[in-house]
Specification:
Shape: globular
Number of strands: 17
CATH architecture of the largest domain: 2-Layer Sandwich
Radius of gyration: 21 Å
CATH superfamily of the largest domain: Dihydrodipicolinate Reductase, domain 2
CATH class of the largest domain: Alpha Beta
Number of helices: 9
CATH topology of the largest domain: Dihydrodipicolinate Reductase, domain 2
Strand content: 25-35%
Order of helices and strands: EHEHEEHEHEHEHHEEEEEEEEEHHE
Distance between the termini: 43 Å
Strand order of the largest sheet: 16-15-14-13-7-12-11-8-17
Structural class: alpha/beta
Length: about 375
Amino acid sequence: MKKINIAIIGTGGMSKYHSYGYKIVDHFFDLDIKICLKLLIGRSTDKKHLADKYGFEKYSININDAFKDDIDLVDIATPNYLHIPLVKKAAAVNKIIFCEKPIGMNYKEALEGYKEVERSKVLNCVNFNFRKATPVALIKDIIEKKKIGKIYTWKIDFLADDGSDVNNPINWFYQKKFAGGGANYDLNVHLIDLAHFLIGDIESIVSLQKTFIKERNNAGGKGTGIVDTDDYTACLANFKNGAVGIFDASRISTGDRLESSLEIRGSRGAVKWDYQNFNFIQLYLVNSSEIDGFRKVYTSEPDFPYMDGYYGMPGHGQHYDSLIVHQIYDLLISISKNTMPSPNFKDGLKAQQVLEAISQSHKEKRWIKIDEIN
């Protein structure tokens, strides 16, 4: 059995999330790869205990240790401004790359990173994990089989309230020099990727962005810092296939905690999914019964996507933690077969192009064609 040594760079929430996926994936799915959590990289020795907690062999504050010969896969779970510099270093020494989204701070930087992974021909993957939800995989199948006909409209939101408290201290998410953008880069990027995955390429877009809380206390309470990333982004989009769409992303959606839902309507039916009601979709097929309307479809049936690895009994549901398990399972299968994982940097670059078009549309107060961003 092939062994793969993994280094994760970063000790924040995504590091915990990714390491959980690596640790639990072979409990559910059969693999011909043995996973070794070799190294956790952090900024300071204060986080050393996390290496033991998450199951790593070693901890280091030297980022160059992630690129040594004993590491096969570099997992980049850092603030956004470090993504592409680390991607370039990993590609230069032919490491497999798993990177958080968005891949870069802007389209130009993302394109540089994409060219590097293309040049080196390393396997690469981006954590657009919502693709890996069983309900989303099922919706993809419904669309591809033309069950709801020609797609007319797409509507999706990602509404969080983690930024709605004015007393929350400033961190890198609120600063453009570290994050690149706010709700657009952090939340809307998932929605854009889902649109690409389920509907197709976006042709043009118009947007509105706003920062409501423009100053926050510094961590520790001394002084304040300027917030220069968006709290809210809304968009209208035209797709190349003729569909139209609405995107709504907020981190000041007071009371929602975390709400995300999508609606896809076509010539012969419609489908809806709500993140907080994770384990079923609403499906409507024209003339499918005497009683018209949506019906609830449970997505935890044993023969649905990814369910073969679970408990064999319908009704045992999944949620957010399942997404990283599915993502890493697909990544490891691709590594085993030496085929390019999905989603990858090509998908990340496509999403980055739309992110930049959204920012430009808001700045210039006009519709932007996506191919203007080059």
